[in-house]
Amino acid sequence: MQNKDASAKRPRRKIGQRGRKKHPVRVVLAYCFLLGFMGLFLAGGVATGYIAALVNDEPIRSKEEIQELLFSKFQTGFAYYQDGSLIGQLRAKGEDRRMVKISEISPALINAIIATEDKYFYEHNGIVIQSTLRGTIQELTKQSVITGGSTLTQQLIKRTILSPEVSHKRKAKEILHAIRIERMFSKNQILEAYMNDVYFGKDANGSNIYGVQAAAKGIFGKDASNLDLAEASYLAGLPQSPMAYSPFNKEGYRRGLERQKMVLERMRENNYITAAQQQQVLSTNLQAHLAKPEKRAYAEHPFLMMEIEERTAEVLLDQKLANEGRDKSQIGRNEYRQLLEEQRRQILQKGYHVYTTVHKEINTAMEKIAANPKNFGSNRTYSVTRGGKKEKIENALEEVGATLIDNKTGAIIGMMGGRDFNVEQTNHATASRQPGSAMKPIAAYAPALELGILQPGSPIDDSPVLLADGSKGTHLPLNWDRKYHGMMSAREALRQSWNVPAIKTYLKVGIPTALNYVKKMGVTTLVDSDNYAATGVIGGLAYGLNSEEITNAFSTFANDGNFVDAYMIQKIVDSRGNTIYEHNVTPVKVFSPQTAYLMTDMMRTVVNSGTGASVRKYVPKGVDMAGKTGTTNDSYDLWFVGYTPDVTLGVWTGYDVPTTIPGSAQRRPMEIWGKVMTEVFKIDSKVADKSAKFSKPSGIVSATIDSKSGMLPSELSKQTGHVITDLFNQRFVPTKVDDSHQKVRVVQVGEVLYLAQENTPDDFVTEGVFFKSPEPLPSSDQISAKNSRVGTKPADWAERMPEKEDPRVAVDGTPSAPSGVTIAKSGSGTTLTWNASPEQDVLGYRIYRASANGGFEKIATVKDPKTTTYTDAKRSDHGYYVTAVDLSGNESQASSTSGAGVDIPGDSNPPVQPNPDHNQPGTEVDPIAPPDGGQTTPPPVATSAPSKVQGVSASKTADGIKVSWKKGPAKDHIVAYNVYYAMNGTTNYQLMDSVSEPSFVLTTSEPGGSFYITAVNTYGESAPSAHAKVK
Question: Which end of the chain is more exposed for a tag (fewer CB within 10 A), N or C?
Answer without folding.
Answer: C
